[in-house]
Amino acid sequence: MTVSDMENVHNKSLARHRDGSLTRNLTNILRENILAGNPAPGEKLPSEAKLIKQHNVSRTVIREAISVLREEGLVEPRQGAGVFVLEPSSIAGPILEGIDPKRISSVVEALELRTAIEVEAAFLAASRCSPQQEENIIRAFQEVGNCIKNGRSTAKADFALHLAIAEASNNRRFVDLINLLGGDMIPRAAFGQRAEIASASYLDKLHEEHRRIVTAISNRDPLAAREAMRDHLAGSQRRYRAYLNTQAANL
């Protein structure tokens, strides 16, 4: 093989690598947009020409990215009509299978899943919420406070607050996921009802974390809302992990 032949092989290899990277990047961008509802199910992706212009990639990269999304069940190319976004197939079963609010390790897994969802939901809520949605969040926050004050379980009110924040994101996917998690996303039963009511310091800390989230959303400060939600859920993970370690030490 001549030097020229070797250079040609090398250049072709680089081109394939470059195209592969471009395909992955474009696929990730389109996937994120679709999961965020843009375009919504039933709507079309931009045409090939528009995608080429928007992302500065070749027709081959566009078609490879569409092929990946089709295999994932997110889009459907229709002859002569374009590429349409599909309703995402149900993933709730495999993801939520085996969540047990009485098993602390399972609780921690649920909290980690919540973090992936709710941190961004809080960011979007601060960016997009309407006055009515803000009022719903504040009302839900106040109800958590009433439950603490009157010695009642806060689990239901807590869930309502997090759901109100998801609704204020104006992205129905966040709402769908939180509804799918349901009461398991506030699995305070793991501590036991007695522990929940008795631990005033725990509930005060919880309420203050909620206050920071609500204040950031009311101030229309997306970055502060994201950070406050992240801190809140990280705190929840620490509390449940500490409880798990305590239980293990008592065995």
TrEMBL record:
PROSITE patterns: HTH_GNTR
Pfam families, alphabetized: FCD, GntR
Keyword DNA-binding applies: yes
Gene3D superfamilies assigned to the protein according to its UniProt record, in alphabetical order: GntR ligand-binding domain-like, Winged helix-like DNA-binding domain superfamily/Winged helix DNA-binding domain
Domain annotation HTH gntR-type: ranges: 20-88
Protein keywords: DNA-binding, Transcription, Transcription regulation
SMART domains the record matches: FCD, HTH_GNTR
GO molecular function annotations of the record: DNA binding; DNA-binding transcription factor activity
Coiled-coil boundaries: none
PANTHER family to which the protein is assigned, alphabetical: TRANSCRIPTIONAL REGULATOR, GNTR FAMILY, UXU OPERON TRANSCRIPTIONAL REGULATOR
Protein name: GntR family transcriptional regulator
